[in-house]
Amino acid sequence: MDNHTLKSTAFLIVLLLGLENAVSGSSDVRHCENVVKRWASSALEQQVKGDKHTLQDLLFFLHVPRTGGRAYFHCFLKKLYSNAEECPRSYDKLRFDPSKKKCRLLVTHDDYSMMSKLPKDKTSVVTILRNPVDRVFSTYEFSVEVAARFLVHPNLTSATQMARHVRSKTGGVSTLDIWPWKYLVPWMREDLFARRDARKLRLFNKVEGDNPFDMEEMVMPLHEYITDPMAHDIVHNGATFQVAGLTNNSYFMESHDVRHCVQQYKTLGAHVLEVAKKRLDDMLYVGLTEDHKESATMFANVVGAQVISQGLAANSSMELADDSKSEQSLSISDADPDNDDHHMQTDASNNVRSENASKENPVGKGEHMTVKKLMEAYEGCISGLRKTQGSRRSASLRRITPANFSKGDRLKVPEVVIEQIRSLNSLDLELYKYAQDIFANLHTRTVQKMASTEGVVLGSILEENTDGIALWKILSWAMPVGLLLLLILVFVNARRRISKLKI
């Protein structure tokens, strides 16, 4: 066989292989289109029965990580629901039992697929969304922060052994059991130990630079973090996948295939985004992390007011959760699934004291809860909670000094990295914009409703007691007297005008 024939044969083989790959790729695209469209069509067909603006028997707080959900859990919901009304925690997907009697509150990082385990017609869903760029920053910082707590151990082996020992001894739930931290923290922990070992080998422990997001000798730089397959699978567009119910922690059997197809063929993400938007439309409340004060006020008036109303309708006074019992249920650190600043379980006693410190200005037991009292209790609680979080964060980040993250340091991240984060989270950016519109509409509707019920609000204020005598009774006596005085004044003025006319 001459050279010309060999070249022709080789060309034909390459051509055939190329055609085969093209056909195979085209087939894969069609398969993914069918998988995603079939799932999306099924999800969009599901309708919410009843008034979505009315609180149902069960409240499901879908907590998107790093959105401030812990504050809502501790400073709102635990003041509205008793411990007995909380559903068993489901963060480790082992303890959740939707059949528990009097189960009225579920707060979890689990995604929307949890609804497949709940009575749909009797469940209201609420959530909070955050600007996607800030959420990626916060997720990166928290992954590093928690992983850095292991650096007190001499090596990675001893750290992991201690974590297993403490968890098996207490039988509790650690940060390492909770999605998504059960994936992100071990990954970052291994990286921190590898970099510490590398510094020891070089006998050089000093780290230069003023940008904590790019100190590769100390911690994985942000630009490496966002391009890692782990971040692609869990972090990027995480809010959209969680609201749609398609995380790698999903209860939906088809979730893996759908998520894989969307990650492989970006254009298919539009179908998942459409489903996520519908989920938000059907929710009782959608808050925004950035509009913290306004979101908290809205939550108290939209959700809190209805919880209070349900309690009053059942002739049961709304009481604060029993603090002592609450803390006993958190006998180990990290047992609280909404804890945004988890400690290792060896810090259990510190964690309990910290939670007690966050409960300032509680509404007294036995008192009727009102929206006003709820907001007052929230303000005191959130103040203590922020102090606790700040001290925990500082203690953890000291172990990786000078990589001490701050909001000001985020300004040092190059714009090209910020743009890359935006590009990788295009679905979340669209969903966040949609959530902003929902929030604006909810705000308008709530203000109008509050204005139309001013008389009812005034009536509730007048019912408060003063020195044992109902204020409304005092006013009921005073108003006729005032009216009589007004009539006398009008009569006297009329007599004066008449007398002037006669002169």
Automatic annotation (TrEMBL):
Protein name, UniProt field: Sulfotransferase
GO cellular component, one term: membrane
Location(s), subcellular: Membrane
Cross-referenced Pfam families: Sulfotransfer_1
Domain Sulfotransferase: 99-147
Family: Belongs to the sulfotransferase 1 family.
EC number, UniProt record: 2.8.2.-
Topology of this chain in the membrane: Single-pass membrane protein
Signal peptide feature range: 1-25
Membrane-crossing residue ranges in chain numbering: 470-492
Region (Disordered): 319-368
Location (main, coarse): membrane
Top enzyme category: transferase
Keywords: Glycoprotein, Membrane, Signal, Transferase, Transmembrane, Transmembrane helix
Compositionally biased residues, Polar residues: 346-355
Molecular functions per Gene Ontology: heparan sulfate 6-sulfotransferase activity
Lineage, highest ranks first: Eukaryota, Viridiplantae, Streptophyta, Embryophyta, Tracheophyta
Organism, scientific name: Turnera subulata
